Amino acid sequence: MSGTISRMEGPLRWRKVGGPNPVDVEATRIRSERLSADSRRLLAEVDKTSQRVQQDCKQRLEQRVRDIQFLREELERRLEEVLEEIDALVAFKTRVERALEACWDPLRACDEVEKELLREVEVFEGVASLLQRTLEQIVEQIRLNRSAKYHLEKDLKDKFQAKSIDDSCTLMTNHSLNPEHRPKELLLRPTPRMAVSPEEWEGLSGINISRAEQEKANSASLRALVDSLLEQTACDMRSQLRATASAFQRKIQETKTAKAQMEEHLAGVQCELTSQKRNMEALEVAVAEKLIPLSVAQARLSARTQRPGAELCYDPAQSRLLAEVQELTAHINKMRKAADLSVVVQQSLVRCQLELEKNMEVKASSLYVDEVLCGQHREPTVIHHF
Q1: Among 139, 114, 130, 135, CA closest to 237
Q2: How far is Cα 4 from Cα 6, in angstroms, rounded to an integer?
């Protein structure tokens, strides 16, 4: 009994003295094992997650690099295409600029006559415009003068009527009126209020007079200006007509001189063409004549090849026959080359002849237009001093 109590008191005494409880130790051990297992799982999961995340980042970075490379290639290709298009447009710009310059060349390439005619058109149009504006000024001044005339005539009419009334009133006396015709009612009514004062009455006439004087002075200035303008414009038009006529005369003389030179060249070309034809005929005859001795020499050489045995030797006669054939052949070739060259020269002369004839026709047409047609149109042009 006492031993049992002693054994039962052991745990109690153990708790009392602070010793570990087996239950707590087991729980602690289990928690530790679980923590270790959880840690191992956590480490494995973290490692797996890190690898997965790292792999995913790597894939995304690689995809990003591929996207950047793709876009870079696209940008480089587009840049190259844009540069090519810029170069192409620059080339087209140059072509358009040259085409535009070519459009202006015919307008700039005009002779002296055309320049004077254009200047003449400009002068006449300018004179016509100036005269039209002057005519409008004259019409306006006539209107102003007629307005001043109207006010003067109206004022004169009013003055005439007022003077007649005042003259009649001056002639009236106490005995000049018939009592039956005396205005009884007028004597009873007050004197009507006057329309204007004496100062205003005098001022209205002064205004009409000043206006008439001003318009008269303006008309005199305008007439002087118009007279000078008519004289100056007539002088300018006559001067331009003389300049254009002088340009026509110079152009006609230059055309005649050029046509005469072409006629001289044409005569020389025709003469040389005839000479070349004769030269070619002479060469052909000479070739035909030289072919006969060449045929004889060749026949001799051919006959001498039939000599028997030892007689077929290269003797002086054989040597001379060969030399003769070579000389005749060389002469014939030279004459044939000369004949061929004569054909080329004749073709060139024919082209020169055709070109000269065509240019002479152009010069003749130009002379007809400038001297006949333009002369007929310009002959009746007379500038009068109006």
Answers
A1: 130
A2: 5
